[in-house]
Amino acid sequence: MSTVIRPELSEKNKYWLEKHRYYELKHFCLQYPYWRKCYTVLSGCSRKPELYLKVRKSSISDPTAMIAEERAYYSARMNIVERTAAKTDCELGDYILRAVTEGLSYETVKLRLEIPCCRDTYYELYRRFFWLLDKERG
Predict the structure, then answer these.
(1) CA 112, CA 11: separation in Å to the nearest integer?
(2) Fewer beta carbons within 10 Å, N or C terminal of the chain?
(3) 99 contact partners, CB below 8 Å, separation of at least 6
(4) Which residues, in sequence order, are CB contacts of 8 under 8 Å at separation 6+?
(5) Which helix H or strand E contains 80, and what residues bound it?
(6) Is residue 3 part of a domain?
(7) Per residue in 106-134, is it b (16+ CB within 10 Å) or e — as a string?
(8) 3-state secondary structure at position 88
(9) 88-127 residue pLDDT tens
(10) Burial class of 90 by CB neighbour count within 10 A (0 to 12, 13 to 18, 19+)
(11) How far is residue 133's CA from residue 80's CA, in Å, rounded to a whole number?
(12) Whole-angstrom Cα distance, residue 47 to residue 74?
């Protein structure tokens, strides 16, 4: 997978992350569409929600409780990404959320979504997002 942003910044940069940590967080965010799909499928409207259940050790034999547990699992991950995007910038958080969860570059966000900021501001917020996400995920 290629990236638009350089994975390594100077350690003097206030939003510096180790290269592999950045990739870990980036791949975490790219799972967001899958989480949303699973969360929706497990809403009770699907005929085969068991296809989206994670196979985890659980003492719960109640299918309804297992689905509720899975929905909570996906919801928690989506909320981390959404909350971090909102913390990144109150005005541009939605643009950042779309960019990090869909793997969009500045050029794509500018053309498709008409983001109201320059490239430097966008990448500053992009780096801030991953720095905040690093703090959030610990």
Answers:
(1) 33
(2) C
(3) 105, 106, 108, 109, 126
(4) 19, 22
(5) helix 63-88
(6) no
(7) beebbeeeebebeeeebbbbbbbbbbbbb
(8) helix
(9) 999 999 999 999 999 999 999 999 999 999 999 999 999 9
(10) exposed
(11) 8
(12) 19
Structure token digits, residue 57? 């050790």
**Lookup result for tokens 């791949």:** 27
Give me the number of domains the chain comprises: 1
* Token pair of 134 as six digits: 């690093």
Q: What is the CA radius of gyration of the chain?
A: 17
Q: Which two tokens stand for residue 59?
A: 């003492």
Domain span at 85: 19-137
Query: 């690093």: which residue's tokens?
Result: 134
Asked whether residue 62 is domain-assigned, the answer is: yes
Token output for 46:
């699907």
Helices (H) and strands (E) in the chain, counts: 6, 0
Which residues in the chain come in under a pLDDT of 70? 1-9, 44-60
User: Residue 69 is encoded by which pair of tokens?
Assistant: 């547990």
Largest CA distance in the chain: 53
The answer to whether residue 125 is domain-embedded is yes
In a domain, 67, yes or no: yes
Q: Are 88 and 25 in contact (CB under 8 A)?
A: no
